Amino acid sequence: MPEHHRLPLLPSLDAAGADRSSLPAPASLDEARERRHLIQIGDLARETGKTVRAIHLYEELGLLAPAARSKGRFRLYAGEALVRIRWIGRLQEMGFSLGDIQTIVREWERVESAPGAMKRMRDVYERKLEETREQKRRLEALEHDLSASLEYLDTCETVCDPQRLLSACECCDLHDKELDVPDLVLGFRAR
Predict the structure, then answer these.
(1) Domain boundary residue among 37, 62, 94?
(2) Residue 156 lies in domain
(3) Are 102 and 62 in contact (CB under 8 A)?
(4) CA of 21: how far to CAs of 11, 16, 65, 143, in Å?
């Protein structure tokens, strides 16, 4: 007998043991297949590493919507919810707030043409890439400053007499006179 003509002998249970047969009857074979893959909010939270509260917040902000509800009114999510939550997480890692993401989603939904929507997302990502590159440049400069400061301070640890007074640091004769004192060292020595 073809698969779509078989009747289930047992109620359709999800991974957590919830009875899927309490859902309204599917309108089509595709919908029936889709329902077999719906997951409850707790399972979605576990799968994504987010809290149930975070997922509820995403819904409140219009960032996520359940695909269906069970007869007991439990939220059920399709596989796309996993992708959406991971996308939200990636945007947060990039520095976007949930309010920023909400704005992005609203603007995306307002654009009627596919090319227009894709251009909108490209613009968002392009701006974020430039911000990221600028941040990377600042971090590389900070890395250089920290390395130079540590190298300078290594001399203090290995060459300086432990009995020497702190006031001697202001006119230190242990460092190469040609060597610039890094700002991160000058800053704590200055008064």
Answers:
(1) 94
(2) 111-191
(3) yes
(4) 6, 14, 21, 59
